[in-house]
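Our working data are protein records whose layout never changes between entries. An example says more than a description, so a record of this kind follows.
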Amino acid sequence: MADYVARSDYYDPATAVEMFEAERWQKSFASEPNGGSCVEVNLGGERIGVRDTKLADSPVFVFDTKEWEAFLIAVKAGQFDLPA
């Protein structure tokens, strides 16, 4: 795995929601129907936002497209699965 290269375009997770169009937030298809463990994403072009659906003022975590792609590959490979 390549070394992480520090970036200069930092953001504040508490105000990062302003970087995304409000109507583009999408709840995960895997979210619980009762409002439990819900995550939503905003595929806003060059940046991807992730936040907690249940919390109106939830911090937003921001990824660029390469970071998001690496995250999805790791999820599909089971790197974040809990032990049985």
Summary: The longest helix spans residues 65-76. The mean pLDDT is 83.
